[in-house]
Write a structure and sequence with these properties.
By secondary structure, this protein is mainly beta.
């Protein structure tokens, strides 16, 4: 057995996830804003640069193994066949297999009206890997200023194009089929509008498609308050074959003014994610993402299952700016993350569907650029597919050349295994200090442990780092002493481990109150396993204490997998012996909590203990 002890360590500036490949345009110039839009499909990435060539715009195709394994070399620069000034070709991009689509929200139609347009490219059009233009898409009822092409998405033989500014920003989206009207004609089959459309809704600002479902964001919709936002789900055969009828209007369970719910949307199979960068967390606008499941609340009900917010809300200002969902993986951007420098550095958060319990969507990682750049807005656009993620940073600089932009490719999601098997974790208070103690049964590729502290149990700041053992199959004990504390103040602590590829895994939250009179506190406290566990609808918690003269009080705090406190159970006026309390699986507001893993933290003035609870619905 080995013992490692470390006092306050130096704060590090970034928590990383994995290897990074930086993409730039072969002909980059000032104010190109390369990375304003990104998309990935298989071995191909497409990146938009809408202000390249005096706002005419362009897009760039990259191949994973061009120039070497995982080199992501540039294959082709895409330009529009009918360029006009300020077309902003590349404002949005999407790619699916051998087809790509590029939006140009200020392009002109055949009558020279600035409706906006979208352009379809085919990989072998004009030659092998030539990525030639195949079709130009314009709306059937286009009008000047619609901004058709402000959002584009393609999946297989279907393309959807948004026009969020149509009819005084009411918005619309248009569905096109590849062979509608002829082979590779890409003809329009349906115009989508909200069932309760109003001006200012911005319906069509973001769009996602998966199989027979299309979800459209309307971040300006105000039924939940001014700018609260909404999203609308359409099904291919709702109301008739290929009718693409509306099946559900989605809103946040805690809708509030200026939430901008629907600013970002992504659907994959039976789950969809909706972001709102104005969402409320800890009474502040930090942003949030909401997960919906197809059969939550009934067959095809598409009910909300989880509200996500990041582990480090103190640095977050626009969480949910963009989202991308692929099967069991979700990435969320905060393009204004403040963790390094004065602002707008940007960060990406990774979630796994079953992390912490079935359909729990627990956070597993956070990603900055390897060299974080102030005002680059890393995460302005994001996309994920088959274990790879691409992230746009359109405000990044290339030396003295400003706003050239960049995109970053990460093989982040193919290996999110937990590197550490944690045996125990406790915090022990002393006189103006708190000592954290933990032990591991084994470690795999473990570079370091990260120690974080908070005053409210929600907004954590890193206070130190302890080297890990790399690879080990024997028990290792660790300690960390936090001496920057005051007696009488409760402090919350969270432990995380980081592997050598940058993947960060968070563990439970504990708390302690340092004191100059430890003899007045209980000397022995034992938290017995709760029963039953797993449980539904309630479980009994037993606490055994000894060495107490008279009575004392103990708090039992329950946290979800993200570290958010959901309930406090108080054992008041308890004496030596076994004391019991029942938890009914509900939060502080008597709302039934979803299935998943929860952490029970026993805290007294002396120290904390923790154990896992498994709630099954």
């Amino acid at each position: 057995m080995r013992l490692f002890f470390l006092f306050m360590a130096t704060l590090v500036s970034g928590i990383l996830m994995a290897n990074e490949v930086k993409l730039t345009a072969s002909d980059s110039e000032t104010d190109d804003f390369f990375g304003r839009s990104v998309a990935i499909s298989g071995d191909h990435v497409i990146v938009g640069a809408p202000q390249e060539n005096a706002y005419i715009g362009s897009a760039y195709i990259y191949n994973r193994n061009l120039g070497g394994t995982n080199n992501w070399g540039e294959v082709k620069k895409l330009v529009m066949s009918d360029p006009v000034p300020t077309a902003e070709f590349g404002f949005e991009v999407s790619i699916s297999g051998d087809y790509a689509i590029v939006g140009a929200e200020r392009a002109q139609n055949a009558s020279s009206v600035m409706t906006g347009a979208a352009y379809i490219f085919y990989r072998n059009q004009g030659g092998s890997d030539n990525w030639g233009e195949l079709a130009k898409l314009v709306p059937s009822d286009g009008a000047s200023g619609d901004f058709f092409g402000s959002w584009v998405v393609i999946e297989g033989d279907i393309a959807v194009v948004g026009a969020y500014n149509k009819n005084s920003q009411t918005g619309a989206a248009y569905v096109f089929y590849r062979n509608q009207g002829g082979a590779n004609n890409w003809g329009e089959v349906k115009k989508l509008v909200a069932s309760d459309a109003e001006s200012g809704d911005s319906f069509g600002w973001d769009i996602s498609i998966s199989g027979d479902f299309i979800v459209v964001g309307a971040s300006g919709e105000d039924s939940g308050g001014n700018g609260a936002g909404a999203a609308y789900l359409f099904s291919r055969n709702q109301g008739g074959a290929d009718n693409w009828g509306e099946v559900k209007k989605l809103t946040a369970s805690d809708a509030d003014v200026l939430n901008s719910f629907g600013l970002s949307v992504s659907i994959s199979g039976s789950f969809l994610a909706v972001g709102g960068f104005g969402g409320i967390v800890s009474s502040q606008r930090r942003g949030a993402v909401y997960i919906f499941s197809q059969n939550q609340g009934g067959s095809n009900n598409w009910g909300e299952v989880k509200k996500l917010f990041p582990s480090d809300t103190s640095t977050v200002t626009s969480f949910g700016w963009d989202v991308s969902l692929d099967g069991s993986y979700l990435i969320v951007s905060d393009d204004n993350n403040m963790i390094s420098g004065p602002g707008q550095v940007g960060a990406i958060y990774g979630y796994l569907k079953n992390e912490g319990g079935t359909n729990n969507w627990g956070q597993v990682s956070k990603r900055l650029a390897d060299s974080p750049e102030t005002f680059s807005r890393h995460g302005f656009s994001i996309s994920i597919d088959d274990g790879f993620a691409v992230v746009g940073a359109p405000f990044g600089d290339d030396g003295a050349t400003l706003n050239t932009g960049a995109a970053y490719v990460y093989e982040t999601l193919s290996d999110l295994s937990l590197p550490v098997s944690l045996n125990a974790f406790e915090v022990v208070p002393g006189n103006n200090e708190v000592v954290l103690k933990w032990s591991t049964a084994s470690e795999i590729n473990n570079e370091a442990f990260i120690v974080e502290r908070a005053l409210d149990g929600q907004v954590f700041t890193q206070i130190g780092e302890v080297p890990g053992q790399g690879n080990s199959n024997q028990q290792t004990d660790y300690q960390f002493a936090d001496k920057a504390v005051r007696n009488g103040q409760r402090y919350y602590y969270r432990l995380a481990d980081r592997d050598f590829s940058g993947v960060v895994t968070y563990h439970q939250v504990l708390s302690a109150i340092p004191s100059d009179n430890p003899d007045a506190l209980p000397r022995n406290i034992l938290l017995h396993p709760n029963y039953p566990n797993p449980f539904n609808p309630s479980t009994t918690i037993r606490v055994e204490i000894a060495g107490v003269i008279g009575t004392t009080s103990i708090d039992l705090e329950i946290f979800d997998i993200s570290g958010r406190k959901v309930r406090t159970l108080a054992l008041d006026e308890v004496s030596s012996g076994i004391n019991e309390i029942t938890w009914n699986g509900r939060d502080e507001y008597d709302r039934r909590l979803p299935s998943g893993v929860y952490f029970l933290n026993l805290r007294s003035a002396a120290y904390s203990q923790t154990q896992k609870l498994l709630l099954l619905e």
